[in-house]
DNA sequence: ATAAGGATGCAACGGAAGTGCATTTATTGT
DNA sequence: ACAATAAATGCACTTCCGTTGCATCCTTAT
């Protein structure tokens, strides 16, 4: 719990009890988390608080937002030292169409792509979809 | 108009007047189109019809759906002969954060990625974000 | 001509993101 | 320690978009 407090402080996020719990929750899940998930896990807390916590986390670089094509925003903790920068931190995500979970594949960075003149790339999102290792039974 | 009719028929879509108009509309736009866009362009038609038309188109391989991270589903015509297959037809998309338009870069296929054992890839979505050629002034 | 199936239109629902404002909790300065 | 200030939380409400059920209209085949 101490490490969480430190991590948040480092990123300029005031470590309230709620925030630490949410961080902890995110940390113990290996899949990306939607607002609704957190909402269910913390029945007592208000949705707005959770929503704003995630937004704060995102803004301060504690988590990154993932758009896996399901239409709901999901979030996952950033790696330590992550700056969410293209070609460096941005990795691909895998969405399993069977269990509906989305995981970070942090080892797999988004490959560099040469765009035509005039295009300036600032961000990228690569999602592969299919069957994850859990569901494929391997 | 005759070509449109033929194209739809080929794909197993009954070429009604409405559908041909929507196809035409999609064809003359170079950016991906959201339901709302079509809705505004065809004020007389009902949203449901437009919605279902897009879904039919998608299902029959006339258009492909694009998730550019804005939270709204967009659609663009498939290339002739497209089968929406990975490593073959799936191309990347570019979303301009300035003009909010998303375009297909059909020349740029999604690079092959070697996933760990157990992952079975069936689909992919790669969106680059930044400033498009129009907006960067080149 | 009529029956059947598909296309369209209308109304309504539901989920998720987001905002304004009041209230509570924490922090700072004296 | 206390007031003043700022930040965090909670409540109510809104909006947007996707989606579905059902009725009606149109087209096609027999």
UniProtKB/TrEMBL annotation, chains A, B:
Its cofactor is Zn(2+). One of its GO terms (molecular function) is zinc ion binding. Binds 1 zinc ion per subunit. It holds the Pfam family FUR. The keyword Metal-binding applies. Keywords: Metal-binding, Zinc. GO terms for biological process: negative regulation of DNA-templated transcription; regulation of secondary metabolite biosynthetic process. Zn(2+) binds at residues 96, 99, 132, 135. It comes from the Bacteria. InterPro entries: FUR, WH-like_DNA-bd_sf, WH_DNA-bd_sf. PANTHER family: HYDROGEN PEROXIDE SENSITIVE REPRESSOR, ZINC UPTAKE REGULATION PROTEIN. This is Fur family ferric uptake transcriptional regulator. It comes from Flagellimonas meridianipacifica.
């Amino acid at each position: 719990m101490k490490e969480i407090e430190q991590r948040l402080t480092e990123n300029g996020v005031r470590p309230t009890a709620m925030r630490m719990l949410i961080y902890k929750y995110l940390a113990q899940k290996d899949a990306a988390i939607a607002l609704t998930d957190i909402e269910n896990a913390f029945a007592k807390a208000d949705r707005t608080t959770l929503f704003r916590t995630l937004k704060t986390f995102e803004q301060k670089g504690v988590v990154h937002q993932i758009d896996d094509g399901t239409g709901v925003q999901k979030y996952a903790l950033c790696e330590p030292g992550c700056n969410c920068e293209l070609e460096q931190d941005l990795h691909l995500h895998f969405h399993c169409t069977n269990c509906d979970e989305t995981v970070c594949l942090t080892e797999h960075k988004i490959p560099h792509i040469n765009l035509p003149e005039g295009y300036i790339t600032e961000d990228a999102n690569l999602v592969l979809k299919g069957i994850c290792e859990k569901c494929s039974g391997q």
